[in-house]
């Protein structure tokens, strides 16, 4: 009598990219070994309704209804039931703190897991205090989304396996992310209506982008990661291969189009069409004369907000001149040109030349396959991140 052994080669997961401007969803096949790459089988995207004023609780409800629509669209594809769900959040759904934990003693000590856990616990307690100030409007508790040790240095030298080593000083670069529990519970509740009894994991898009860019562009040591896809612009600062800071300011793609709607007294669809014609240089002379000062005003507003955001950094920190930008295709090149304007960053970036690289998705095709014609950089970056978590 013979026995048939079935070796599982892949894992089916659902990935949701949850921003304040849109929600993307995908069913992804994750190989269970390092010989293959993740494959996006099907994906969908839905816009979150733009509201006149920023209201966090109202935004949660809009996000929830859009998430439900996105999940239902994926379910209707009838590809198969995902084993797990991974949600990647952008601002304003979370708050991250990236700190360098330092400790030194006169006598040598052993770096242990208990020592590291105690130091991390102290950092979490500090972050919870910051959270209570930022998310006071939610009247709820914080929940830890993710915590990751980016690097550990003992006696000034970076080591990959520090546990059990003797030292007199240590430095740990840590990223810890918290989110309002009410928000994460709403996401769980919404997804459970479509994908019953599935484990849901939470991460941040900024950290996922850091790992994907670091693995892809190994010759780049220091750079900025900028995401402009919703209400808020997120800025990640990488120095000597380490994610040193995550900043944000309330001016993103949705702000861009709301500004147009208000100033020109037009509907959102008309604002998007007008901007498309402007970008393609297909506006009539009359409309171009009217629109050009408006877009220059938006550029100045965003650029000044970006500069103010950078000015919150320590004055001793000089920013790198290489920028990796993620944004939707309709506004990506416009913002890339704004970032190339040195007047908004000249006080912080040492060189006058800006290298702005827009992440299109096609550059990740050797790390993530897609059966669809369009390469979505958001979902590809997140698929790469999920594989890093599953295949260690």
Structure, described:
The chain is an alpha/beta fold and 392 residues long. Among the domains are: 10-93 and 182-214 and 361-390, 2-Layer Sandwich (Nucleotidyltransferase, domain 5), CATH 3.30.420; 249-358, no CATH class. It is 35% helix and 31% strand. It has nine helices and 15 strands. It has helices at 56-76, 113-134, 181-192, 205-216, 253-264, 268-279, 285-310, 332-339, 377-390, and strands at 10-18, 22-31, 39-47, 84-89, 95-110, 142-154, 157-159, 166-180, 199-204, 223-228, 233-239, 242-249, 322-327, 355-358, 369-370. The strands form three sheets. Strands 9-4-1-2-3-15 form a six-stranded mixed β-sheet. A hairpin with a 3-residue loop joins strand 1 and strand 2. The longest helix has 26 residues, at 285-310. The radius of gyration is 22 Å and the shape is globular. It starts with 9 loop residues before the first strand and ends with a helix.
Report the principal-axis shape. globular
Query: What would the CATH topology of the domain at 10-93 and 182-214 and 361-390 be?
Result: Nucleotidyltransferase, domain 5
Full CATH superfamily name of the domain at 10-93 and 182-214 and 361-390: ATPase, nucleotide binding domain
- Alpha plus pi helix count: 9
CATH architecture of the domain at 10-93 and 182-214 and 361-390: 2-Layer Sandwich
Which structural class fits the helix and strand makeup? alpha/beta
The major pleated sheet works out as: 6 strands, mixed
Enumerate the spans where pLDDT stays under 50 for 5 or more consecutive residues.
Answer: 1-6
Q: Under the CATH scheme, which class of the domain at 10-93 and 182-214 and 361-390?
A: Alpha Beta
Gyration radius, rounded: 22 Å
Q: Tell me the number of strands.
A: 15
Give, in spatial order, the strands making up the sheet with the most strands: 9-4-1-2-3-15
Tell me the span between the first and last alpha carbons.
Answer: 36 Å
Mean pLDDT: 87
Order of helices and strands: EEEHEEHEEEHEHEEEHHHEHEEH
Helix content: 25-40%
Share of β-strand residues = 25-35%
